[in-house]
Structure prediction request, 1356 residues.
Amino acid sequence: GQEDTSRDHSLVFADLTPEEMVQVVRYLRENLRVPLVDASQAKPSDNCIYYIDVQLPTKAEVLLFLDGGVRPPRQALAVVYFGNQPDPNITEYVVGPLPSPKTHRDFTMQKYGGKLPFHRRPVTEKEYKDIDSFISEEFSKAEGFLQYCCDYDGTNLATLTTAPRGFQSGDRVTWFALFQKVYGSGLYVHPVGLEVLVNHSSLDVSQWRLSKVFYNGRYYGDMAQLQREFDQGHVSVVKVKKVSPEEEFGSLKPRAGPGAPGPFQYEPRGPRYSIQGNHVVFQAWSFAFGMDVNAGPRLFDIRFKGDRIVYELSLQEALALYGSNCPGGMVTRYMDGSFGIGKFTYELVRGVDCPYTATYLDRYYLIESETPRANKNSLCIFEHDAAVPLRRHYSNFQSLYYGGLTKSALVFRAISTIINYDYIWDFIFYQNGAIEVKVHATGYISSSFLYDTGIDYGNQVGERTLGTMHNHLVNYKVDLDVAGHKNSLVAQDMVFESVQAPWSPQHQIQRPRLTKKVLEKENQAAFPLHSNIPRYLHFASNQENRWKHQRSYRIQLVSFAGDHLPEVSSMERSISWARYKLAVTKRKEDEPRSTSIYNQNDPWKPTVAFADFVDNETITNEDLVAWISVGFLHVPHAEDIPNTVTVGNGIGFLLRPYNYFNEDPSRDSSDSVYFRAD
Amino acid sequence: GQEDTSRDHSLVFADLTPEEMVQVVRYLRENLRVPLVDASQAKPSDNCIYYIDVQLPTKAEVLLFLDGGVRPPRQALAVVYFGNQPDPNITEYVVGPLPSPKTHRDFTMQKYGGKLPFHRRPVTEKEYKDIDSFISEEFSKAEGFLQYCCDYDGTNLATLTTAPRGFQSGDRVTWFALFQKVYGSGLYVHPVGLEVLVNHSSLDVSQWRLSKVFYNGRYYGDMAQLQREFDQGHVSVVKVKKVSPEEEFGSLKPRAGPGAPGPFQYEPRGPRYSIQGNHVVFQAWSFAFGMDVNAGPRLFDIRFKGDRIVYELSLQEALALYGSNCPGGMVTRYMDGSFGIGKFTYELVRGVDCPYTATYLDRYYLIESETPRANKNSLCIFEHDAAVPLRRHYSNFQSLYYGGLTKSALVFRAISTIINYDYIWDFIFYQNGAIEVKVHATGYISSSFLYDTGIDYGNQVGERTLGTMHNHLVNYKVDLDVAGHKNSLVAQDMVFESVQAPWSPQHQIQRPRLTKKVLEKENQAAFPLHSNIPRYLHFASNQENRWKHQRSYRIQLVSFAGDHLPEVSSMERSISWARYKLAVTKRKEDEPRSTSIYNQNDPWKPTVAFADFVDNETITNEDLVAWISVGFLHVPHAEDIPNTVTVGNGIGFLLRPYNYFNEDPSRDSSDSVYFRAD
Ligand SMILES: [Ca+2]
Ligand SMILES: [Ca+2]
Ligand SMILES: [Ca+2]
Ligand SMILES: [Ca+2]
Ligand SMILES: [Cu+2]
Ligand SMILES: [Cu+2]
Prediction:
């Protein structure tokens, strides 16, 4: 039936199954004809599979298929680190067809217009482990100092990476900050004042070097120098107070025992949505979902009453850009997509992360390993009563009646824990045809060791902890297809016009009037992060509704963003999607993402620079994509301990029907309530 | 005990009881020594009691009392229309002490610095009825036309008022638009194209005149002229299609029968809040509440862990400012506070307007009557699970643990139906010490008859219905008292500074830095509606938290407002609170409200002009008040039929602790969840 077909259609967007991953690994091992080491064991000078994910067909292929045409072949993307060859590089292969691959094709050149230099590769867990070993060895040159400052016993300090890693293309020189290794609580708020700059650019681990050491406001050439100066009494030492498991500061342990439970949700007749494979149906809504191992959650073919509204709605990047007077803090511009927003969506805790009644789904990843890993219960789907009516009117004027409807919406959620921070990714579907995309930030803040003028960069939040200010910016791709894929971007706003009252010309009226403008070029449709934006912005179609208005969807943003980076910065182009709160471009198959996982480790020569997408092409009556950046300036304060709260730290956007229908489609909801007095 | 004392303290803010209202009426009838007519029957040339509400003591008196001093006398405010005297005027009396009044004092001069001219008085239901009768009589001069255009039978047309009523002080000349009188559904979307301008300024009803008639784009001197031109075939008539009770357009009647119920809230151990009188306790929160008959909901003495954070948090005004090419629409600037935001908070429907489990409370009003009226179940209070964690962190880095807390918040709600529109007023209390104030707009849109270039002012939403664009603006008073009532306003924001990397001076870093500024004068603290505002704005105290930061509360706004009115407008000063998204002023007992109920009918000589409050006084270390304006530009579209939805139409602000505590107080919540692997 219809539903079976839809479910089957959604599979074209499905993530790889563990079986498919295994097949691709098997195929590569048999066919690459090079020695491959499992990434969890691989040295930089080895070859290894970095990750495998689904390679989606082109939109043209998919649309043909959805319209009843041929099913496109199912393919995988395999990213391989070639460290063990004369010209080390990263190669991206398309492998297919699944489930039994027969071919692989190097499409690095096609996708990026050139080879991918090896220094751009994301750092693996194995590389971090090797760096930790390296640092440990270096620490042996300052045992006395470390013992004195930090009660160092060889195991009780942890490193946290920063990024980017240097100042120019080719650098792989990273500041690592040292933290007390506390158990069961966030070490992120226990800096000890020591940071070390590691040059790990060589593929030969034995060639790695400590380039610089920072301790409590001063820089040293290496650990030995720090030890010497310490021995000479030249180092101002702040002895670390050892954090015990019972330590209160930063702990998430409840102080109060459990009390009476609060309200929770109950579904008297069970769930009202259905999930089959990666296909979700809720009232008039249906969509397909997936999880990109790096970029995170993504939805496809979002339909309302059977009509596609959005082809793709996907997270692209999450950026956190810090200030500090410590070196690690001041260079930090985390591009979380390169760390893995998808693979870091861990298990959700029933009753806290999502309601008890939610449906929890597993996801599978293959990254830095040759075997798939399951993140159990890492997606949740549930219906939620917002406890405010979606609409209501109570009348006792002329006649007594009431009509209303609860705001009961479907929520699709994943939560990524990217080291210290937790991002809650929500996609919400309302009965009126609106979609809300929302991200909340929570988890532990990053911190620096507090010294000197630290509070120019944040607030003191602990004895020696500086909660460092930063800007969160999140980018989404929204390939709206409103009543077909040929759309235009229309801006509406208000102006006041001063007019004579028609019935009393000696009097002036200041009258609001609607302004309307088609934004014809990409450059007109790229709105700087802090510019005013027209109050109404629509993806408008060529179809008209019953009242002769263009059937449209409106984009409405909620953001509290700070600035992204001055364009003079040598790395700004790598995050140039953040120049714009909204940019609408002509959709291109070769502009699938606003950034790349390779931008983090070479932001000076970005693999993908979004700014290049905005090249003033004509965007009337074209297949358009909206790229949306929302964020908030976060100045951590005492109340960010133990964790940042979601209250006030939610940002996102709405896609709302605007003359798309002839009336509010929630009229068709069976949840409507109506009564009248007569 | 402590709780009894708090409950008793809250009574100082309590609304009048019906018994108290009755006593004040009795006292006035016995002591005013003038003939008084019940307002529901009173002609303009009569004297009548317009309304009676509580007259709150001064803040100084209340604070003394709350600190253990003497209880201030309980008093009422009585507003009397004196139409039946040589110098007609409105007089405001303070009557007390309750429950057995012994004195009344005319404090009009003291409060307003002059007499209140009679023409400023709000229009009563009786005056509207008399106007309807007058219009009916005038309609007899155009029976043929009305029968032809509108199937007029003397009963099937309804009038809707507009406001303001003229162009200069003293005018009382109102456009009334005619709508099909439909039953059980919103007549507001059924304009017939006819509007009439009624001069009802005379206190002698027989002197009222029809000044102008508008029909389908043309103006006529009176109904007789319209009939004459109709008879001559000069009138372009659009015959009204009679709306039957089964009519779909604009109806709230469900199309689908009830289906499986959606999720709803369940309180396994009952409510976790308590309400005694007007005193609410929820976890660490307590507050007193009341409902101003005109201005609407207000909270007092909001405390967290026993410490006052807000002295007063009160709605001030809701403005809706329209554009149209019909006369009624183009002059409309509704100031809902003069219609009665409080008295129009009607019964809430269980399970739709608030959860089934909510507590519903009655309110009593005395307005346009000599007997109190109950609005049953017109306030609701409930705890709600937002279905997103308040905070959470999942760690599998270094050690495996999880901590989290559901976002379970107390909601205090009332919904005002002001003719066509429904405003949902929410005040939300979170476990982390944050308060959220939110308003959603729903209900029926206002509309004009569609002709000619109507869509310059909105969208066509029905056969002949123009959904007219308008700007919603809502003003709140927030008398924050952060750690005492002496506060200063501090702005923090980010700038980028270009610095040499300390370890590598040949390289520049673009580093975010925190800027901090005390805003010393009122003019610096008045932020124009569409200016950029510092990203962090705090009410800061003289106390420091454990980390030596000023204990503060942050104000964070969410608004999608359009412009308010050009200042050249002769009525702009009457809504000059809307010049500012946020203005912080020195608190004054004689600046209790940002507007007045008398501004609507004489906006050209506003009784209260908020702009006068902003006179550049020093605001450091003073008792400060924040006046906050939020709104949204509303361009109605097809989906506003039948009702505007709340999705995307919510605006408001947050009051968030910022270094007020030493850590997040939600750590003390017994709802916290924590576990670790070891
Ligand atoms: Ca382009
Ligand atoms: Ca598109
Ligand atoms: Ca002042
Ligand atoms: Ca104050
Ligand atoms: Cu943050
Ligand atoms: Cu509106």
